[in-house]
Amino acid sequence: MSRLKENGFEYYTLDELKEKTYYKQDLEALTSVFDGLPQDEYAPHLNRYRRYARAVIMPGSHRVEWLPKTVINDKAYYEYFQGSFNPEYTDEYRRFPALPEEMMHNQLLEDIIRFDFQQTFWMKEDALMPVHAGIHFVKLCVHDDGEVAVSSPNNLHQDGEPFTFAHLIRRHNVKGAMNAISVPDHRGRMPVDLHPDELTASFYLENPLESYGVYDPLVTHYVGTVEKGGKNGPGERSAILIDFQPTVVSDSEKTSSMKGLTDQMIFV
Ligand SMILES: [Fe+2]
To answer: Residues lining ligand 1 (ion), CB within 5 A?
Structure first.
């Protein structure tokens, strides 16, 4: 029985991936991408750093096919649109620096994406089509005492994509980054303002590839702020977030999201 389907939330260790021969080498390559992540230009004061990529997963074969980047002044980007679900960034496109090209050949990353995808479930019609995967490398990093790094949005929220998975890559010298899961009724609230019984789960991701997934319609989720721990050097909490959504939307979704856009569309 899938707990993700029943409760909208499940915790994973991904231990089976740690058996792979390329695990160590590919994890090192993944981790090193976080060393040089650019600052999130849309939130320069929040001590957040990120890169992004988009892929589709083919039905049947579960092959991961990376989508084209946008290149501006020799720099590669992926466009990002979250609709009205993130109240901090409504109705606007964001564009994030692309994952380095070598990540598109990282076997471990592909296995993580495929593992996540295999946890998801769809209407029959949607399962016949490629599914879109958004892959975010997100680092919360603080250099000085008193600094705070903040996730977006900073409350119990839903993402709008049906499924989101979070995989810890590195946690070092930080306080915070508490994960919390609750029900949709508590959307917009802070876990600290709720009775402990009103939280489905609260936990910390500590080890590489410690993970969780949410089925968005059933739950709200939250990641707490990050502050520097007691050791010397910066505090860092780095994770890969992977979300999935259908590549074809229903008629009702279509009318709400495509209004006024038809004259901007081009033939491929
Ligand atoms: Fe989220």
So the answer is: 159
Q: Are 150 and 48 spatial neighbours (Cβ–Cβ below 8 Å)?
A: yes
Provide CATH code, domain 3-249: 2.60.120.620
Secondary structure letter of residue 251 according to DSSP = H
Span from the CA of 65 to the centroid of ligand 1 (angstroms): 24
Compute the distance from residue 168 Cα to the ligand 1 centre, in Å.
Answer: 14
Domain limits of the chain? Answer: 3-249
Rg of the chain over CA atoms, in angstroms? 18
Q: What are the b/e assignments for 238-262, b being 16+ CB within 10 Å?
A: bbbbbbbbbeeeeeeeeeeeeeeee
Q: What is the pLDDT of residues 81-112, one digit of tens each?
A: 765 556 666 556 789 999 999 999 999 999 99
Distance (Å) from CA 267 to ligand 1 centroid: 33
